[in-house]
Amino acid sequence: AGQTTMQMERTFIAIKPDGTNRGLIGEIIARFEKKGYKLVAMKAVKPSKELAETHYDALKEKPFFGPLVEFICSGLVIAMVWEGTGVVKTGRQMIGATNPLESAPGTIRGDLGIDVGRNVIHGSDAVETAEREIGIWFKPEELVDWDQTVKQWIY
Ligand code: RTP
């Protein structure tokens, strides 16, 4: 009785090397925390070429694929899984349009960037994509099962 074991929606969020270099890690995490989402996994990695290529597999025919992979592997990435109602779609709204020149003020890219190749952050574009990306970046046991009871009334 009581608590159901319903699996909440999850998304994969990554702060890209430009974001970590510029000292934006705390700012970005704070936005997801304050919105009311729950952090269930996080790690700092300098991705291998294989990891970056797998992650961006859908873009492998694009002219910017090589430079994109090289950029993602060039420095520190903060890989995270965030959980909560509508987190995939709302996370994308919080991130803003791919091109920071077109993303609205108030969004992460709209507030913090100007270059499409250096757009600070990645967020999964669909629930299925999120599941795939979480599986690429994390082992199942790295997803933390923890209780946010004290703050549950916020949600
Ligand atoms: P992301 O996957 O990183 O959240 O970005 P997105 O869905 O908004 O954009 P997508 O089209 O999937 O592109 C992935 C990343 O590739 C880089 N990109 N560069 N014209 C270009 O040089 C170009 N276009 C896209 C961006 O870093 C983009 O986030």
TrEMBL record:
Pfam families registered for this protein in UniProt: NDK
Cofactor dependence: Mg(2+)
Gene Ontology molecular function: ATP binding; nucleoside diphosphate kinase activity
SUPFAM superfamilies the record matches: Nucleoside diphosphate kinase, NDK
Reaction catalyzed: a 2'-deoxyribonucleoside 5'-diphosphate + ATP = a 2'-deoxyribonucleoside 5'-triphosphate + ADP
Enzyme class (EC, first level): transferase
List of residues binding ATP: 16, 64, 92, 98, 109, 119
Keywords assigned by UniProt, alphabetized: ATP-binding, Kinase, Nucleotide-binding, Transferase
Enzyme Commission number(s) of this protein: 2.7.4.6
Transmembrane segments: none
Domain (Nucleoside diphosphate kinase-like) ranges: 8-145
Stretch forming the signal peptide: none
Active-site annotation: 122
Domain of life: Eukaryota
Record GO biological process: CTP biosynthetic process; GTP biosynthetic process; UTP biosynthetic process
Family named by the database record: Belongs to the NDK family.
Protein name per UniProt: Nucleoside diphosphate kinase
Organism name: Rhodosorus marinus
